[in-house]
Design a protein that fits this description.
extended, 1% strand
């Protein structure tokens, strides 16, 4: 059975159906594009706040491993201790990943393998773009800061890195290991000629990481991580490039919770690694520069903060982190705003007065 309809009516309904399908496809494409943009933008935080080198998949795999197996409590060998140390580092980074991207843990659990792989691929696009942007930013800014602070002759080019590194007297001094004196002609010649007596590697703290670019051989911890250049670098990447020029005082006094979240040891490790690259003469990012391994250097910095040998060293690390928070983000006293203090402030006082006036008005009417 059928009810006759005209060809024109059937064609109109078919066109309407096709137009609905086209709109659904457009919406689906727009949704996918929004997801891509979101994941890429979220991925930019990973290299800054979580880990500079470790793949995201390794962090997820370590957390999965810990969920599957219980911790080993029996005695272990030295090799096993090193493996466990790396595993602990991975797990700490995974925890930082979940802090930086609170949605990612549940999201991974809800996606199938293909969807999860697609999401991680988009996150890594953001990861790579952030590192490229940060190294590019510091490449130009570092030259300007060195020119202003040290007045080299000739001035360092902001676009050309070929005349940086140890061939440049100022950059060479900043990159010089803390255990040597750049002012010694023998040291300078040995480093520049790359002799076996003066191997510059990730096993030395460069002088640019020290306050006033000077290290105390008897106490190498004194002044370490307190360089003005380092503070300028972190402010440039985590607040804005213009804020790096405002070094008087202690930050801008933004929210203290946000300060503590952002002034993390991973942030500082990332900045120090990128600044070492900015001072060097290599023109593109790579993990090894001559005898200097950037990945091990990054791990050495994180070890300084995370693997303190005892409570005294841990207290000094905490003081250093607080110093960084003040320098970059400023002081804040919100934790001192108790209920009693707030009750004496004008907003609460006005609210009390208005209630009193309402009660007085009601009494006069009755």
């Amino acid at each position: 059975l059928r009810v006759s309809t005209s060809p024109q009516a059937r064609a109109k309904r078919r066109i309407a159906t096709l137009m609905e399908e086209v709109e659904l496809l457009k919406q689906d494409k727009a949704t996918k594009q929004r997801k891509t943009t979101y994941y890429v933008s979220q991925g930019r935080a990973i290299r800054r706040l979580v880990a500079l080198y470790t793949p995201i998949e390794d962090l997820i795999a370590e957390n999965d491993r810990r969920c599957k197996y219980e911790d080993v409590t029996s005695s272990v060998s030295t090799v096993e201790c090193l493996i466990m140390h790396r595993q602990d580092r991975l797990q700490r980074s995974y925890i930082e990943l979940v802090k930086a991207l609170p949605w990612i843990h549940d999201k991974i659990a809800s996606l199938d393998d293909d969807e999860s792989e697609d999401m991680l691929r988009k996150l890594k696009r953001g990861v790579d773009s952030a590192r490229g942007d940060d190294t590019g930013t510091l490449k130009e800014l570092m030259a300007s800061w060195v020119n202003i602070e040290f007045h080299p002759i000739p001035l360092i080019s902001t676009t050309d890195k070929h005349h940086r590194g140890f061939v440049n007297d100022i950059c060479g001094k900043l990159l010089c290991p803390a255990e040597w004196c750049w002012g010694d002609p023998v040291v300078r010649a040995g480093i520049r000629d790359r002799t076996t007596a003066f191997i510059v590697s990730e096993n030395s703290w460069p002088l640019f990481m020290y306050q006033n670019c000077a290290a105390d051989a008897g106490n190498l911890e004194h002044g370490l991580m307190k360089s003005k250049l380092l503070v300028m670098g972190l402010k440039a990447l985590f607040t804005s490039p213009s804020s790096a020029n405002k070094m008087d005082g202690e930050g801008q006094g933004t929210d203290i919770i946000e300060n503590n979240r952002r002034a993390r040891r991973q942030d500082q490790a990332k900045v120090k690694t990128c600044m070492r690259f900015a001072l060097s003469s290599i023109t593109s990012w790579r993990n090894v520069d001559g005898d200097f391994d950037y990945e091990i250097f990054w791990n050495n910095i994180v070890d300084f903060f995370e693997d303190a040998p005892g409570p005294a060293a841990r207290a000094r690390v905490n003081e250093l982190l607080e110093w960084w928070t003040r320098k970059v983000f400023g002081r804040n006293h919100r934790q001192d705003l108790t209920s009693d203090v707030i009750s004496r402030m004008s907003v609460r006082t006005l609210a009390t007065q208005r209630l009193a006036m309402e009660d007085a008005a009601l009494d006069s009417d009755s």
